[in-house]
Amino acid sequence: MKIRRVVAAYFSPTGNTEKLAKAMAEALGDTEGPPAEYIDFTLPDARCREYAFGQEDLLIIGLPVYAGRLPNKILPFVQQKLKGDGTISLPFVCYGNRAFDDGLSELVYEQKNAGFIPAGAAAFATQHAFATTLAQGRPDEADLEEAKAFALDVRQRLIAAGSGDGLAELPALHVDGNTPPGPYYRPKRMDGEPAVFLKAKPLVDPGKCVRCGTCARVCAMGSIDPSDVTSVPGICIKCQACVTHCPKDARYFDDPDFLSHREMLETNYTARKENRFWFAE
Ligand SMILES: Cc1cc2nc3c(=O)[nH]c(=O)nc-3n(C[C@H](O)[C@H](O)[C@H](O)COP(=O)(O)O)c2cc1C
User: Fold this and answer.
1) How far is the CA of 159 from the centre of ligand 1 (A)?
2) Residues 109 and 148 in one domain
3) What CATH number does the domain containing 212 carry?
4) 275 CB less than 6 Å from ligand 1?
5) Ligand 1 centroid – CA 32 distance (Å)
6) In this predicted structure, what is the pLDDT of residue 34?
7) Ligand 1 pocket, residue 177 CB under 6 Å
8) Which of 208, 54, 220, 228 is nearest to 129 (CA)?
């Protein structure tokens, strides 16, 4: 088989998924053919467009796991705007050291429904957007090397699988998790009760904020008013882009259930999780 174009598409409010997508794309793009292309669908504008792929393309697609599944507000983009036509893909998820639950199986399932042939898949443990002590600093150099090796391994296996009509014979990919996916994970507080913070929105420390507008620019839902960043009229998916990218550390959440959930995660999910890889075989 010939891969003439490598495209890496990612949703990555706090940057971890982007790092891994780029590592894999660079590994493939560097070794054969033209440099990789990127589709960053973190911001709303990029999710308005459609992207079509053919049989000589390879799509690397990455999303973070939110509540044990793909982020539900981003799912329609994955289902409807990325269109494969017997296109080989390499789906992966990032998760914050708790669990990826049905996030990866959902992505593989949706990719198959959208005309892609997933040839390999991965789940990476990456720093949690809520709690920086979970998988702190990951992806690190070792994770990025693992990601590159995985991408090259998939490519080798594709070459070994044959040329011409070999793709049609590629075995189905099976990953951990339910297909179709089960219910979303319900976050818990320290006392074990459900943590309910769906309506929480990020606040601004007026003593720190310099009105630079970064938070409004990076908001994955375009929900922060750029002319008054203290106002968040739109929906908040708690992605933490505003908190992470604020140069003055001025944005924060004070919702008690959110804070209790963070403490619960920091208390219970400290053990290092290894990255996982699957191949169509
Ligand atoms: C709203 C939300 C829900 C999350 N749910 C989970 C989860 O169920 N399991 C888990 O291990 N990590 C979870 N995480 C952590 C993310 O998967 C992790 O922070 C990931 O690295 C974020 O990717 P990004 O840096 O590309 O934005 C969640 C993060 C957010 C913001």
Assistant:
1) 34
2) yes
3) 3.30.70.20
4) no
5) 33
6) 74
7) no
8) 220
Decide if 264 is inside a domain: no
CA–CA distance, 217 with 98 (Å, rounded to integer): 29
CA of 147 to the centre of ligand 1 (A): 18
Q: pLDDT band for position 167 (50/70/90)? A: low
Q: Measured in angstroms, how far is the CA atom of residue 96 from the centroid of ligand 1?
A: 5
Cβ of 13 less than 6 Å from ligand 1: yes
Q: List the CATH number of the domain containing 89.
A: 3.40.50.360
pTM of the full predicted structure? 0.97
99 token code pair: 């669990």
Q: How far apart are CA 117 and CA 84, in angstroms?
A: 8
d(CA 131, CA 154): 32
Q: Does residue 194 sit within a domain? A: no
Q: How far is the CA of 33 from the centre of ligand 1 (A)?
A: 33
Same domain, 133 and 238: no
Domain range for 152 is: 5-183+271-279
pLDDT of 169 strictly over 80: no
pLDDT confidence of 29, banded at 50, 70, 90? confident
Q: Is 238 in the pocket of ligand 1 (CB under 6 A)?
A: yes
- Looking at 41-102, list the stretches that DSSP marks H as alpha helix, in order from N- to C-terminal side: 75-80
Count of domains forming the chain: 2
pLDDT tens digits, 112-150: 999 999 999 999 999 999 998 999 999 999 999 999 999
Domain match, 167 and 209 both: no
> Residue with the nearest Cα to atom 6 of ligand 1?
66
Alpha-carbon span 51 to 35, nearest angstrom:
18
- Kindly state the tokens that stand for 37: 């292309």
Query: Ligand 1: which residue has its CA nearest to atom 12?
Result: 96
**265 found inside a domain:** no
Average pLDDT over residues 32-38: 81
